Amino acid sequence: MSESAEPVETIRQPKFVITHERAMRAASNYKKSQAELLDVIFDVEDQQIYLQMQIKSLYQYCVEMLGLSEATAYSLIAVMRKSREVPALKESVVTGRVTLSKARKICSVITVKNQKEWLDLARVCSARIVERAVAMANPRSAVPESMKYVAENTLEFKLAVSEEWSQLLAEVKDLMSQAERRAVSSEEALFTLLQKYKIKTDPVEKAKRALTRKDSPLLPTTNCSREQLGRETKRTRNIPARTLHLINLRDQGRCSFVDRYGKRCGEKRWTDKHHIKPFSEGGDHSVENLQTVCWAHHRMMHR
Ligand SMILES: [Zn+2]
Ligand SMILES: [Zn+2]
Question: Which of 15, 115, 158, 234 maximizes the CB count within 10 A of its CB?
């Protein structure tokens, strides 16, 4: 029996070693790839490769073109941006001393002054210890903003707030409770404020209200800037309010850029009004000649 057990043992040993070596090689390649990815992402941003490919952000490029997970793309970009300020952070990842995920963890606390301590900690300690040290140095980072389902139609919303914020909320709740003659919850108070803000400032809501009025005044607007369009002209750059409202209603206040796959951008932030026929070339402020575009797509159009 003991004679037959021996050959099995000698076969198992090399197999174990071979598998281990394969794992070591794969891990080394994985770390090398991460380092290479971080290195190249600087060039992608500097050369604005994503804009040339009609993709509006580096994040979208990482996820859609490179096929990276959202978390990896987020880490990569965060570390790259922080490394512009603290180049030693990039060096540590590229040379394999610190992993990308640990580098991401120390982004919120690392500076040129304290870089040595944080990079040493990230190199030597486990991810959990690094996380704890960051939370102690920057308590706000310990509570990342999150919203997740806890039941159907019920979400849990978590965020770190200042003492001043908490005091202000308490005062607003007092005012609302007094006005309503009942106890108003934090959720209700915030809902009321959010709703009021939306109705007051949403360009589509404003357009609906304004178009029922006859005498809309001219509004200043963030249309194509002088730098983007070239020389200054004597004609006014103010788009008539009525036109602006009509565009907002038509575009629903969202970027109307459509990519080559037919997908509309739809961004609601950082939007401008773009002249299809440039204002400097005699393009007018007609609804047909104007479109809502986000900052990134607007920049792309004027390249
Ligand atoms: Zn423009
Ligand atoms: Zn856009």
Answer: 115
